[in-house]
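I had to read the description of the data format several times before I understood it. For illustration, here is how one protein appears when written out as sequence plus structure tokens:
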Amino acid sequence: MTATATSRPAASIPVPQRSRARATQQRWRFTAIGVIWGTSLSIAVIWVLGGGVQATIGGGPDALDSLGRLTGLASANLLLYQVLLMARVPVFERGLGRDAITRLHRQSGFWSFWLLVAHIALLVFGYAQAARLGPLEQLWGFVWAYPGMLLATAGTLLLVLVVVTSLRRARRKLRYESWHLLHLYAYLGVGLAIPHMLWTGADFTASPIASVYWWGLWGAAAACVLVWRIVLPLRRSARHGLRVAGVRADGDRGIEVRVRGRALDRLHALPGQFFVWRFLDGPGWSRGHPFSLAAAPGQDELVIAARTAGDGTRRMAAMRPGTRVLVEGPYGTMTGAARTGRGLLMLGAGAGVAPLLALLEGEAYASGEATLVTRNHLASEALRIPEIQRLQRERGVVHFALDGERSQHGPSWVPAQYAAWSGAELLCHLRPDLLDCDVFVCGPAPWMTAVLRDLRAAGVGPERLHHESFTI
């Protein structure tokens, strides 16, 4: 399983550069958190200056109206985060990382929705109580008599559609391509829901400063979407002339795609990062797919590997050389800059092995210092086998293939033949110096959750655990 070649690869990140990279990431992180807290506090200030505290203490219909305003402001602020987190803004991508962004996107979406429901209910009951009307009659009056409310109603219905299709049970029943298309309606829903606040919201109509701030904030969010989701990807892809160079089968259910271009080192991609890819091969090209680099990036070639699981990946298998490619990225913080020690333990399931192999190609380590653990239901489905064998031969990587049906009684992330082991015991057996290793984990979200739980049980500290998830 081991080899003697231990030469340092040119793509690796030296230790001093890792320290500087971690310090830079911390600065990005503080900036991202500062933006979130700053906008949240501004919402509280707008509500307080608008008499929110006094009205709430006073009770009665005014208290309901005041709380309705507060929940509406908080919901709109979370919608703002939804837009910014989808916009690939560098301050969030570099400061929080894709895994944290994915969690925040999902959590803020659901919280925003329930605060929106509370906002509608509180205002309906507050106004109905003051006017001595029934709640349904008051709701009807809101929709038809107040400026912007028809637009807000349409926007709310679109947001309900996005929330319902984002529930895990519904999400599992939808193809990725269908879910992605439906999810884009969130942009339209936000655009329709926001204007009524500036036209009818007492917190903004009574304060020109608050109105200018709110319009400016949403204008900046729209500009972020335009710049980082449309303009820069188009410009970057055209500059580098990205085209498919070759497609081949990888195992029974996988494909490898090689993309060529000019001066790809200027993309500043690192092993372990991912791009959002769009292949201009016909209908459906507009739907982006996040794929990690499956090899250390070169000056003229990028490599990805994927499982053929949906329409998008099946289409990729039929692509012809010369197909134009659009990319967004690179994104992700699961890179060599996260390392704190010498030893490496890589745990990958299915297509999750791709970024781990890119890291193993790009990082520096001695023979025997890096261990790769792969997990597949069938050995024939394993991806990147020739590349794994080359790393064993040339770099001394130790490889354990945990193939087979899932264990029903032991750790859920290993095959049935290891059911007698606890997850923590098995990890320590695979890597006796586990506590001295940086551990990188990539695979389906439930599998990663189980692995990370056992790694923590084995005593691995959070500073040595590195993982990212694309699942929203």
